[in-house]
Fold this protein.
Amino acid sequence: MRDVVFTRSSGWIPNVIREDGELRLMLGAGADANHEPRTFTFSIGEAHLAVIREDLARHLLLWSAVLPLCDAAGTRGRLDENAAVALLDPILLSAPADVDALFGHIRWDKGRLIAHGADIELLERGQVCAAMRAATETSDQKRAQKYHADRRRAARGVVLGPLDAAVLTYTGQYLHGATVPKRNPDAVEPALLPEVLRVIATAEQAGAGMRIGRDPRRGKRATDKRDWDRMATAVDAAVHRAHPELVDDAVRTVSFLMCSEAADRSRNTPVGDDEEAAGGRADFGETARKTALSFTDDKGVEKKWIQDSPRTATAEFWEFVADRSAGDNEVFTIEDEEMGEGIQLHFYADSIARVTTVREGEGGSDPEYRVEYSLVDGIGEYRNLVSAFVRGGCAALEQRGPWISDAAEFERARGRRRDAQ
């Protein structure tokens, strides 16, 4: 039978229970193989209970010292109760100087104490008892996260100034650099907010007119990495020039914010239409030369487009690519059967082939085709080539070469580019 003898308002601070007549400290820590919280207990005495009742600081220090033992138990191991019991007298019943000395050579969870209000400077100096004079039962996990974030930066030699910290707080990336940045003006101290907004204004001006297009080769929500890098470089340079006092972490979070917002604008536009929304040279129904096209992928799936369709041929084609493209499906074709010509995009090889019919098949003979190859530099060039073909067929691609008709020569050209990268 288990009875709760003593508990604090915070449910995570260890409780004292009586189990089968024996006092035990009970705490939750870690998780089992099914990600369910684990619970550990170990024996304590009446003298230990008296200190735990009266002294929050000693209670928290004991918790901090026992947690590494729980971590060592893993997902299914047993708590080393002897090691846990061995901590009781030195932490709960010893003089402060002896407790400080003990914490100088055992493992303990510093973040837990910081979350409960410990003085960080005193902790860093090894004065753990003095550091816990301001301890609280309530926990502030963000305080501990901030401490660990600062420690990670310090390990890289990065020390934040007030404006650096404010910029990172504004974007929501102070604690976690992998967090998608947002605009959080209410999180910044009012005195620093005008300076932060000046930094943001510099970034916005640097990125004005730039866009991050879609990359349908990688799915419906993927964006063009080159566009992203181009915008990030421009914003980084402008912010560094205008605000040289900012550390790289603060500058990067601003460019990340600008790029994320630009990418979101593209993602909210249907695949293919984003080119037109940005003023790209996409084909429109009334000016497009093509009246009917066939799109196919490497799996034999086909989609038809006719001039009366509500969307343009380029938009329909890139939507088809976004839906179908995969690691084992990287060859897409656009064919104009009436004109006897088409293009084939090889995403795996960063290349394209244009195919024209030289002679129609007669009397059961196969038709004769001319196939020419060209290297392609990124999704932007693929978009231009597709748009040009839709507007004017293979003839419109003539100036977008060079085109190589010999397959072996083309493979050598691919090899030279690969070696140069």
